[in-house]
Structure formats: C-alpha cells, structure tokens
Amino acid sequence: MNLIIDIGNSVAKIAVLDKGKVVEVRRSSNQSLEGLSALCNNYPIKRGILSSVITLNDTLRGQVEQLPFPILEFNHQTPIPIKNLYKTPQTLGMDRLAAVIGAHAIKPNKALLVIDAGTCITYDFIDEFGQYKGGNISPGMRMRFKALNVFTDKLPEITPEGEMPMYGQTTETAIRSGVIRGIEFEMNGYIRQLQKNYPELLVFLTGGDDFSFDTNLKSIIFADGLLVLKGLNRILEYND
User: Fold this and answer.
1) Which of 13, 23, 31, 126 supports an S-S bond with 6, CB 3.0-4.6 Å?
2) pLDDT tens figures, 188-206
3) 95 is catalytic
4) Out of 6, 95, 116, 127, which one is annotated catalytic?
C-alpha cells in the first residue's frame, strides 16, 4: 500500500492507495497533517510520496521525517512517465503535473485537457504521445468573488450558493452569474479551441469546485476529484 500526501494552497489531502485504487482519503490543514499517524497505523504502508505547492513548515517536515517508511518528495527533478515540455519546470506546480500524469494513466494515447478548479483554475494539456505541452492559470471562483469586493468600493462579497439567472437583475445575482457563468464559458472556450486541432480531445475536470457544461460536451468530460492523488501514486510506482 502507498501513502499519498498532497499539500495544496488551501488544504492537504492524505490518502492510501492499493494497486492503484483509492482506499481512504482524509483532508486536513495544510499547516499540520492531522490524522497522518492514525491513518498510517491503520494500513500496512510500504512507501509514500509527498507533493506540496507551499513551503513546508517545521511541523510538516517533522511529521514526514518521522514516518517509518521511505517518502519520495516530488519535485521537478523526479523522473516521471511522461515528457515534460514546460520551459521552466522548476516553477511548475507539482499538483498540475501530477493531475496530468493521473489523467494520462487513465486515458493513455489520448489528447487530454485537465481542468483543476480550486484556489486557482488551471488548464493543462498533454497530447496523445504523452507530451505535456503546458497550460494556463486563471483566478479560481472564490478568488473572483473576493476580488470584485476588494477592488471596488460598493460591490459586496457574496457566496456561490443562490439564484443564478442568465442575466442578473440584482447586484448579487449579477455577480454570481458573472463569476460562475464566466468560468463555465472560459472552460468551454478552452475545450472548443483545442478541439479544432484535436477533435478526439478528452477532458478531465478535478478540484473542489463543480461546474456544468452544455449537453454536447458532457460525453467527453470525466469528473475525478482524486486525479492528483492518482497521478502522485503513478509517479511513486514509476520510481519504485
């Protein structure tokens, strides 16, 4: 069994995988991995991998170093089962790369767009030959709501939950529809643009925020909230 630790900008995920299948996932603070020891005591874990998009503090570092099995710390020098064409691999978020590898492991020999909707929304593309071409980063949903409030004098900060008409008729619905529908249109735009050169494109949607798509796109979209964990597990297996 493998231990997977994915430390993100907002939360950390700790998971146990066995033969590629997710056995258990726990979420914790990204400043202290609550439940890590208890999880490790419940399973016969042989090895693990750690990926973090933040700098590890002393607490996190100490918890990892005390584990009774080897931990691979994923970075830009770690061997991976795809070709990385990113020009500055040392600046690439390891969660983005892991998500692409996870998608490629599930659908090899396919052109894939991986959309990760979390704190930021990332769009990453890998072709049918296993070449990671790169991707883009845009503000996430909650970041957009926050920005409208912070950078204006009168616009309120609202929540995603609530009425969302095509055209808002109150300031609240105008903001909600503008942010959420704007993200949906953005995602659809990336998909349709890539389909011009890759008509057999498949899309993986992961992350903490859910978005809908118009009917004719649903057949090519795979929702998988555990894609990064599966990718990290694939990297760990590749380095065994």
Assistant:
1) 13
2) 999 999 999 999 999 999 9
3) yes
4) 95
